Request: fold
Amino acid sequence: MTKPSAKSELIEVSSNPLTFHLHNSQVSYVLGVEDENILAHHYYGKAVDHYSNLRRYPRLMRHFAPSPEDIETRDFSLSTLPQEFPGAGGADYREPGIVVQFPNGSRTVNFTYDSYTISDGKPQLAGLPATFAQEYEAQTLTVKLVESDAQLELYLSYTIFRDLPVITRSTRVKNLGQQPVQVQRLVSFSLDSPDNELNLLQLNGRYAQERNVTIEPLNTGIKILDSKRGASGHTQNPFCALIDPHATEFSGEVFGFCLVYSGSHKSIIQMDGYNQVRIQMGINDQNFEWWLEPQKSFQSPEAVLVHSEQGLNSMSQSFHELFLNHLMKSKYSHQTRPILLNNWEATYFNFDEKKLQDIIASSHDLGIEMFVLDDGWFGERDAPNSSLGDWVVDRKKLPNGLKPLSDYCHNLDMKFGLWFEPEMISVKSKLYQNHPDWVLEVPGQRRSIDRSQFVLNLGRAEVRDYLLERMSYIIEHADLDYIKWDMNRNMTEVYDAKLSASEQGEVSHRYILGLYDLLERLTDKYPDILFESCSGGGGRYDAGMLYYMPQTWTSDNTDAIARLKIQYGTSLVYPVVSMGAHVSAVPNEQTGRMTPLRTRGLVASSGDLGYELNPLNLLENERQEVKLQVKWYKAHRRLIQFGKLYRLQNPFETTRAAWMFVSDDKKEAVAMYFNIFSEASSPLHMLNFVGLDPSQKYSINGKYTAYGSELMQIGIYPLTQNDGDFDSAVFELKAVE
Ligand code: GLA
Reply:
């Protein structure tokens, strides 16, 4: 492949006034140096070939809008100017991008433009996960701003990808003064826009019901979407989008924003009195302070900005492509994922070697490719109230250790995976007896407990070294192929007795940096292990974790009908191949609902298929059906995991859901349709396909043929008879002739 030089193709610089136009064939982003050397925002949206300064902000006298002291006119004020990175304490009364306390107690900070550099590719972010690119795939603009008293430098980094409508941004602040300063907020990006005809889309939720899609109009004031949990959390995914109020899946302008960070996060969306909109995203500044010694820097996490002029679906495809090719660093990122059976809902803590072997043998017979031993194999773990931290095999349950189970799988040509919850500690554990001080707590204060466990302080090197040593031992002795990395509570009483009083605001972020350090070392040391991230299901489903672990357990809710919404919402940002999706027994453990095995199979086959049930309890006809599901999934796995996803019908808006997966060459597609509630004398509903080649003839389920244009324009009747609630249908499309 020839590597075209990226120079001057993606980032155009013009002078008088100095303007930077980042553009590819899909997106343009323009910033420029304004009067008084302020770095202003001009434009972000659909690509334009040329930029002739049309969006230079008008000189306009506003009242109660302070100007710099030494200029004579009153028509220039930071209080209204769209900026690239607003300071604090000056004339801009909107949300600051940075808050720093200086040695004299001042928190006033304003930056002016200093210089810029452009480089091919994309530099890594020290200590943080971030998207990556080859030199010819992207170009990076770094703009240096300086603080008026020359005590701070700010580096704003912008990467534009050649083939995607994607800009990534991050911020680094450096202390040039003689004394330490305290950073109290540093957002990853700030974006101002005079456009205000926008709705806000967010992904919120709760345990077992993650990533609900919520859309609301923007109003004057401040909207905050955040997590203070020390994790990205079930309740608010670190993603949001500003969308045209008329945007649909396939039309309308959409701006998607996603933070590559797994800790407490905050998005601020502000509309001021002039209806100008500012959006910012970054580490949550609640309980956050970072000391910056002279000559030291603090690096913000990265934020990904995706633009779409064709609705939400196209935004999702851009996120998926970016994450697959430029974020998930695992060697498995482009490999199809094994169909697994996880014993959690099958046995909970109640198993022994024989029982597991029987489950493995039965799974093998069904065509399942990997067995995952979940919680309960270590310490004396018979309930959730003990042993976290004691990563030693429970010889009462497994007298011969893990190796015979692993060998048993390998002899059947199956893979063997294991559950860990490394970040946690039970009071009833040897680890706690030996290291009670490793817990995140305020000594002497009453602690909060959740699921009978506490959080280990991963900010400490000795804790990480212990975990690396223990996990390495098990990985090597049990010959693991896969690890499910769980995390079943959030942080409380965030404090580290080893740090000084004034450093306590660093603990939460130090934890996340520690987590990333441990993951970096572990994934580097064991590149052949497939990692799946989990936090009580999808409580830490974020781009930071995806960097290390190419799949995530989407939700503890395995109810197929609940999963329609959960997977729909998740797919807005995260690729299909990153979503763990399992068939479980009925009545469902979380909802008590009975759903047909076919529908359970299809919903789970919309991600990385697995089973979360005891195969020995299946009836003979169910076994046969599962065998067929497994066989079918294997035949369509690459298409589903790596094809283009089109969401066709939205379960948040109707009592139906549908989506399809289309191969890159459009020769093959699979569509799935779900009718949630059955109605008497039901009106007929159509299903229109998307993403096909209009002039291509396709066979549908091998039964009839039609052209792509017809299938997309006219559509089909997906269900014509009432087969009860939770019915579903699948359509396999294959190009013919
Ligand atoms: C969490 C996970 C489950 C299971 C249990 C085990 O809830 O999300 O899948 O692993 O922990 O305790």
Notes: The two ends are 32 Å apart (CA to CA). Residues 1-6 have pLDDT under 50 and may be disordered.
